[in-house]
Amino acid sequence: MLAPERWPVRNLLKAGLLAVLLSGAAVIFKTQGLVLSASCGADCNPAPRAFTVPPGHRASQFQIQSLRAGEPCSGEKEGPMAGFSIRKEGDTVLVYYRSAKGLVSDPVPLEDLTLEPGQYKLLAIPAKGAAVSLSCALSPAQEK
Question: Is residue 23 part of a domain?
């Protein structure tokens, strides 16, 4: 076998590429996908979805898979309403809805949302037949 200083450059490049691919694969296997759904029934009773971001992890890269509008529960004449909120221990973390003025995502755009470890609830907007389905990535938190 050749000493390392005599290895052809091509073999070194292959070895380096293999190391990069293997380290990338390790990262891929550590990240998990999560799909969350919540709704509000025809009787205006919400069906929230509780979920947990475990210690040492973060939830990010949120995307809407489906967002179904519902009719207002209180007899308002506003028309169909679509939206949802994410709450942690009673505090609202994010509110997202469609209005006549367009999309509202407060306090950050959905794609920029990152949730730290804790217990959360996904709630569809209180409207008859409203529903939401979100996906996100659950991954280990980066060390600082």
Answer: no
